[in-house]
DNA sequence: GTCTATAAAGGGATAGAC
DNA sequence: GTCTATCCCTTTATAGAC
């Protein structure tokens, strides 16, 4: 069956999302997929190639949709003026919630997997980067920059960094942080995005406080 | 040498920070430590026990300092009033920057390792939780809650979740996100904290927009 | 405490029958 | 396309000499 390939992709997705690349053995994955161990090498030729395939088939459509939404935001914005921050953030986030509702897919698992991608060793991201992830990142950085012209380049770099960290963390950890997520349903990605957009915008817009009186050099003083 | 134990702890810290628990073999670790493979089992009896030891010796002092700083914030705040959000966030973050400057330690590596802790399988966190991490988390959740009384419990839960995600992500990823961190030095933890505090505070304070309606402050066309 | 040697299990990959 | 059987390597852990 060619359906074996699909079952393998889904099983690998699940395992990678939960335990990462190194933590997921091919034996685990084939057991979950109810497939034979040798099927992995038949369909993908190696574990690493399967990893790339698993990631790419989810990230590809996501980047397309992001690009499309961002173009919409640009088209609607007044020429020359700053881009609307909320809209840019939505274009960054909503595709995650929208692209993965095809039959049987779990947006929670997929977004967790994508969030995890950035905790993996760099060599596991090179191929994904080459296929468009890096470029999409730069595109969004530029859009955010246009939405936040008031900051110095250095301040913007920090804000962009924190923004990506919050976004990736919120995706990677949803549904699996005991003690952190009492009754709320972090696996409802639409809801997550709805709350995350204002959080990011608030953090991004917050000005840096004026530098206060010189800090104590290292740690002893408690004169607050 | 008893110094072997120390070299092992540092080497393990480095490896766990870079590649995670499953990605770090005892062979890797003992090679970095210039120690014999069998030394791990002699000093720690198992890889998992060493993991707990590596984490605990860094997290323990961190939690103590957090507790101390938070007590200071409470003592300085007017009774009954809300706690000052910036101070609470600083008590959450500054200890990471301050506790690890003892001879030879790298705050960048240590904070990366701590940030990674939350991407590891849950069983690797149970012992650390039991030794105070969970309780410290609850303590800070309560303090943040007192600093943000204006939100509903549900909204606060989301904000707290995002706050922790941004914090852990910023720690875990510093120094190793190519393309994301152009010229800035994310391994300067003091500087990271100085920028992260306003980002978190801005995100935490930002009110939720009215549901499914154009934002009240700006009559803007909504395209959903 | 440290070392060599090795056990015992698990990992990715492959050959070849069907 | 799928399966069994197996190769060969790495992993964690341990035994026992020094």
Q: Would you give an account of this structure?
A:
The structure is a homodimer of 224-residue chains. Chain A is mainly alpha-helical. Chain A is built from nine helices and no strands. In chain A, helix 5 (85-98) packs antiparallel against helix 7 (123-147) and helix 8 (153-173) packs antiparallel against helix 9 (189-205). Chain A is elongated and about 60 Å long. Chain A binds a DNA duplex (18 and 18 nucleotides) through helix 3.
Descriptors for this entry?
homodimer; 224 residues; mainly alpha; 69% helix; elongated; DNA-binding
Q: For the report, how would you describe the main beta sheet of chain A?
A: none
Q: What Rg of chain A do the Cα atoms give?
A: 20 Å
| Count of DSSP-assigned helices of chain A | 9
Question: Which stretches of chain A of 5+ consecutive residues score pLDDT under 50?
Answer: 219-224
Structural class of chain A: mainly alpha
Q: What's the oligomerization state?
A: homodimer
What's the average pLDDT of chain A? 90
Largest interface, with counts of residues having CB < 8 Å to the other chain, equals: A-B, 63 and 66 residues
Share in β-strands of chain A: under 5%
| Count of strand segments of chain A | 0
Which range best describes the helical content of chain A: under 10%, 10-25%, 25-40%, 40-55%, 55-70% or over 70%?
A: 55-70%
Our measurement of the CA-to-CA distance between the termini of chain A, rounded to an integer number of angstroms, reads 68 Å
**Structural shape of chain A:** elongated
Instruction: Summarize the helix and strand pattern of chain A as letters.
Output: HHHHHHHHH
């Amino acid at each position: 069956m060619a359906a074996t390939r699909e079952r393998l992709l889904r099983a690998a997705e699940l395992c990678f999302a939960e335990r990462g690349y190194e933590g997921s053995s091919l034996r685990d994955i084939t057991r979950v997929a109810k497939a034979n161990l040798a099927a992995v090498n038949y369909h993908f030729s190696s574990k690493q190639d399967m990893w790339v395939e698993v990631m790419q088939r989810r990230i590809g459509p996501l980047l397309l949709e992001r690009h499309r939404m961002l173009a919409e935001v640009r088209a609607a914005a007044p020429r020359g003026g700053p881009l609307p921050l909320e809209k840019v953030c939505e274009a960054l986030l909503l595709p995650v919630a929208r692209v993965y509702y095809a039959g049987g897919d779990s947006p929670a698992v997929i977004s967790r997997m994508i969030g995890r991608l950035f905790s993996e060793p760099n060599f596991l991201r090179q191929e994904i980067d080459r296929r468009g992830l890096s470029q999409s990142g730069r595109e969004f950085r530029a859009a955010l920059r246009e939405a936040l012209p008031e900051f110095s380049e250095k301040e913007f770099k920090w804000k962009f960094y924190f923004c990506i960290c919050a976004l990736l963390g919120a995706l990677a950890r949803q549904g699996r942080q005991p003690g952190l997520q009492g009754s709320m349903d972090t696996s409802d990605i639409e809801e997550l995005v709805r709350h995350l957009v204002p959080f990011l915008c608030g953090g991004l817009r917050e000005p840096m406080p004026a530098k206060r009186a010189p800090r104590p050099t290292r740690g002893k003083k408690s004169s607050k």
